[in-house]
Write the structure tokens for this entry.
Amino acid sequence: MEEVQHQPIQTVGQDGEIESMSEGSSVTHGEPLRDGPDAKEEIVTEGSSFVHGGPHQDDNGPPKVDTEVESLHEKVTKQIIKEGHGDKPSKYSTCFLHYKAWTESTQHKFEDTWQELQLIEVVLGKEKKEMAGLAIGLSSMKSGERALLHVGWELGYGEEGSFSFPNVPPKADIIYEVELVGFDETKEGKARGDMTVEERISTADRRRMDGNALFKEEKLEEAMQQYEMAIAYMGDDFMFQLFGKYQDMALAVKNPCHLNIAACLIKLKRYEDAIAQCTIVLAEDQNNVKALFRRGKARSELGQTDAAREDFLKARKLAPEDKAILKELRVLAEDDKMVYQKQKELYKGLFGPRPEPKHTKTGTSWLVFVWQWLLSLFYRLFRRERLKTD
């Protein structure tokens, strides 16, 4: 996938990571660079988050929405910002979401989970008291849907408000901008914290495989939702408790999800987000070739050539036969050469010798003739006067 000016081939390898191959190359980017004979399902793509569906709204208060207002409860209304897909969650569904929250009267934003690179989990029917209105809104939404919710104080932080975190005044009506990334149907309503280590890793791995299937269908936004939900089971609080084989098992699911999100983001030309995903993987595994290559690709697209070259050079050291890495380095070298030539031409024009003024041939000859005639005339007059004197 990561090739300049070519239609690369992408596969979902045996390790669950989306791979790339340059045309005419049998070598892919990763560890190992080719995941064996099982990595043979291929799709052709067009070459180039926890933040999917595009960057969320700016921080200048709640977004302005002109869609129809739907009344979900006496104290809860909803306006759809972006349509979702599939079914709606039921009672005891484990919902994964991002949201921003403002007090309606002052437009003060008191919470923003998009700033955290982890999803929020809400089990419908078991939500916290202050999230009762938010849960009503979630129960009406589909996966991938983004909506604006107006919640009365009675279903929010109540008559007393909250003086810790988040800081919410008493009797404050709330506005939520919420995105339901997805949900898991669990009859017993088991949250992540109630699962065993094996259950969490297994559930995350199932989400990763669902994401791979969606990627092969080129449903990038939906694929990222699945990868994001998989990572939600591998949160920092969970990873810090793991060691040995369990840590290896968790990273074998978590890191491919980050890299697959990065692959989707590069295709969507969201290079800053792709860099962030690759950097997360490199914090755990600084020699991950796929992470180095994809981060280098994203940096190259943003014009960060020095940083991109650094990533590609390190990737080449780890995978010296990878043709796609070598090609990206050649492209950077050619770009540097073009920039140098342009600068050379520019400086030549600015600091080159000043051109001499040009005169027409006819004008120059006439002036010379007149000057010679005047000299001859003065010479004759001077000679005549001298002869008279003698």
Observations:
- The first helix runs from residue 132 to 139.
- The two ends are 105 Å apart (CA to CA).
- The CA atoms of residues 93 and 185 lie 5 Å apart.
- The chain has a mean pLDDT of 80.
